[in-house]
Specification:
The complex is a heterodimer. By secondary structure, chain A is an alpha/beta fold. Chain A folds into two domains: 182 residues, 3-Layer(aba) Sandwich (Rossmann fold); 129 residues, Rossmann fold (3-Layer(aba) Sandwich). Helix content of chain A is 36%, strand content 20%. In chain A, strand 13, helix 10 and strand 14 form a beta-alpha-beta unit. Chain B has one domain: 3-Layer(aba) Sandwich (Rossmann fold), CATH 3.40.50.970. By secondary structure, chain B is α/β, with parallel strands linked by helices. In chain B, the strands form two sheets. A six-stranded parallel β-sheet of chain B has the order 2-1-3-4-8-7, with helices on both faces. In chain B, strands 5-6 form a two-stranded antiparallel ribbon. The chains are: A alpha/beta, B alpha/beta. Chains A and B meet through strand 14, helix 11 and helix 12 of A and helix 12 of B. Bound molecules: thiamine diphosphate and magnesium ion.
Chain lengths: 332, 342
């Protein structure tokens, strides 16, 4: 067990995977000499050379498309998209090529690649550099989707992604790179596709992932002071996802909310809430709530940016409202 | 006291000096912790873009990349409103919604700065169709960096412009770097004008240390574009500082930077003006001083300006008078509020 950062855990996972498997290559903008826009790939080009750590021109569709072809022909590419906001440019290669190849071609041609990228708010990076677009990925059959929230998950989920037979989109959060935590390279927090209970409780379940997990945990601490005992579950893998532990927790508590940073409409939160409602309807005391980003582009003003995404306070107040039916002051 | 001559080269000198002073104040805004974020891309060293903006006419439109402050000042921007936008304030050009990378102003023909490399380029194709179809005589210019030379959409746009004889210009501000990648590490063949020529555009490359050379090339390209013969102009410049405010450029040598910064369009223009007796040293000093004062005021204005009210967050997602996004608090209250399910 060592203390490290989310950023270094990802770097360690890439390093270990590249050492263990010579077919793993990295391709993306500034991943080599520069060491990654957020420093994740620092030094890897010195260790593995320019044939395995490939600095690409600013050509996102071809970066992802090249990764698809490399994966088809025996390599294990990790393509990096500097910001998830650029995923739209690559959506054809991702959603029509990577995602569908195995199926369209009758199971012959799989695409075992990982697309690493990062998203989220917190840096006043404005509307085109702050989004949470995981719902676009979740909506595409054929793609796997992972969003680590902890240091240990950053390492292990990436290592696990690099053993998958199909394309995995691995979305980091720019606000977590400097977060410290324990890394145990021998022990993952959970198996591939398994949600993990980060805090147990019996009054309600808060389901979350990525940076919002930490806001949810902070909210749970404050809920405890208010006499409410929240269970906080980290979804981690959004596809595949074992729903059994979620169903168990929702049936046990009768109250649940899903917290995401992405805008609420058409979100991962919407989908999880719908799935759990279908299965747990008779056990529910209250509707399953979705708490997420406001349905707007991310504004540059730091004030507006902060107000547009959930905070521990919003999560705490909403959870308390859900459990006690006492309205928070801002609801007036 | 008025200046002896207000020749066009002197006016271009003044605009370049204002751009540099502005960008220096943007740096200060950041250091004071007053900017909205750190994604601030300064155009210091690229001021010769004024040679292109000066070749445009009122009514002409343009798009820029993320390093577009200089371009917009060249087209007549109010520095106080620009600085306020960079600080994320309500009276900024975009009400504090866009920031440094997303400044726009319809009145001055600025169709928008873009944080997606290449994102604004195809818009001039559409603008070109508008102007061609209405025979309006306007042109539209896309300003972008050398990094966008790697984006496929540039070539799709160039082909359409040539195919449809559109009144547009593709203006590449080649500052030799896309973040930490020097052009020789991003292009197999660096003859960018040849790419434009291959699509059937008029193409030119001009020395970015020489604003008059840029202007000469830009004038003839603009005249041809207005006539339905689209063009490509490359301004060969150097990015004096890091990519954004946090970047100390560890990937290049101090020697290279010294050499690059010696290609200073402002110093060059100053020397030329003094040589030709177009202005005395005292005149030029006064221009410099005026620019500094103007930009100090812009900085003070931005710092003192009001941040936007929280409720403005929901405005302008859609047009006024049409259904707006529903605030989350309202949605939650409709589920949990008193009597919501009575
Ligand atoms: C589509 C896209 N890819 C990558 C980026 C990240 N990025 C921002 S600026 C930049 C370099 C752009 O270089 P260039 O076009 O030469 O403009 P400069 O910064 O030199 O003015 C990169 C890679 C982006 N904003 N958009
Ligand atoms: Mg450049």
């Amino acid at each position: 067990m060592t203390e490290t950062t989310y950023r270094d855990a990802i770097r360690q996972a890439l390093l270990d995977a590249m050492q263990a498997d010579p077919s793993v290559i990295l391709i993306g903008e500034e991943v080599g000499l520069y060491g990654g826009a957020y420093g994740v790939t620092k030094g890897l080009i010195d260790l593995f050379g320019a044939e395995r750590v490939i600095d690409a021109p600013i050509s996102e569709p071809a970066i992802v498309g090249a990764a698809v072809g490399a994966a088809m022909t025996g390599l294990r590419p990790v393509a990096e998209l500097m910001y998830v906001d650029f995923i739209g440019m690559t959506m054809d290669q991702l959603a029509n090529q990577a995602a569908k190849s195995r199926y369209m071609f009758g199971g012959q041609i799989g695409v075992p690649m990982v697309l690493r990228t990062q998203g989220g708010t917190g840096r006043s990076a404005a509307a085109q550099h702050s989004q949470s677009l995981e719902a676009w990925v979740l909506h595409t059959p054929g793609l796997r989707l992972v969003m680590p929230a902890t240091v240990n998950d950053a390492y292990h989920l990436l290592r696990q992604s690099l053993t998958q037979p199909d394309p995995v989109v691995f979305i980091e959060h720019k606000g977590l790179y400097t977060m410290k935590g324990d890394l145990d390279v021998a022990t993952p927090d959970g198996a591939w596709g398994q949600p993990v209970i980060r805090r147990d409780g019996h009054d309600l379940v808060i389901l979350s992932y990525s940076r919002m997990l930490h806001e949810s945990l902070a909210a749970a601490e404050r809920l405890a002071e208010s006499g409410v005992d929240a269970c906080v579950i980290d979804l981690r893998c959004l596809n595949p996802m074992d729903e059994a532990p979620l169903i168990e927790a929702v049936k046990r508590t009768g109250r649940a909310m899903v917290v995401t940073e992405g805008v609420v409409t058409g979100s991962v939160a919407s989908d999880i809430a719908a799935r759990l409602t279908e299965v747990c309807f008779d056990w529910l005391e209250e509707p399953i709530l979705r708490v997420g980003g406001e349905d707007i582009p991310i504004p540059v003003s730091p004030l507006l940016e902060r107000a547009s995404i959930p905070t521990a306070t919003l999560i705490h107040d909403t959870a308390l409202w859900l459990v006690t039916r006492k309205a928070p002051p801002w609801a007036a | 006291m008025t200046l002896p001559t207000n020749s066009a080269p002197l006016a271009r000198y003044r605009t370049m000096r204002r751009i540099r002073s502005f960008e220096e104040r943007v740096g200060e805004l950041f250091l004071k912790g007053e900017s909205a974020g750190s994604m601030l891309h300064l155009s210091i060293g690229e001021e010769a873009v004024v040679g292109m903006t000066d070749a445009m006419q009122p009514g002409d439109t343009f798009t820029t990349h993320h390093r577009g402050h200089g371009v917009f000042l060249g087209r007549g921007a109010d520095p106080a409103r620009m600085m306020a936008e960079i600080a994320g304030k309500e009276d900024g050009y975009c009400r504090g919604k866009g920031g440094s990378m997303h400044i726009a102003d319809r009145a001055l023909g600025h169709l928008g700065a873009n944080a997606i490399v290449g994102g604004g380029i195809p818009h001039i194709v559409g603008a070109g169709i508008s102007y061609r179809n209405t025979r309006s005589g306007q042109i539209s210019v896309a300003f972008f960096g050398d990094g966008a030379m790697s984006q496929g959409i540039l070539y799709e746009s160039m082909n359409m412009a040539a195919l449809w004889h559109l009144p547009v210009i593709f203006c590449c501000i080649n500052n030799q770097y896309g973040m930490g990648t020097r052009v020789d590490r991003s292009a197999g063949n660096r003859d960018f004008p040849a790419r434009a020529t291959a699509f059937g555009l008029n193409a030119a490359r001009a020395d970015g240390a020489d604003v008059e050379a840029v202007h000469d090339a830009a004038r003839s390209l603009a005249a041809a574009a207005r006539d339905g013969r689209p063009g490509y102009l490359e301004i060969d410049a150097y990015r004096f500082f890091g990519h954004a405010r946090m970047d100390k450029s560890p990937y290049r040598t101090p020697e290279e930077e010294v050499e690059g910064r010696a290609r200073d369009p402002i110093a060059r223009a100053r020397a030329r003006l003094a040589e030709t007796d177009a202005a005395t040293a005292a005149d030029l000093d006064r221009i410099d001083g005026d620019a500094a004062v103007e930009m100090d005021l812009a900085l003070a204005h931005a710092i003192g300006a009001k941040p936007p009210a929280l409720s403005t967050m929901f405005e302008d997602v859609y047009a006024p008078g049409t259904p707006a996004p529903r605030p989350q608090a309202e949605r939650l209250a409709a589920i949990l509020g008193e009597g919501a399910r009575a």
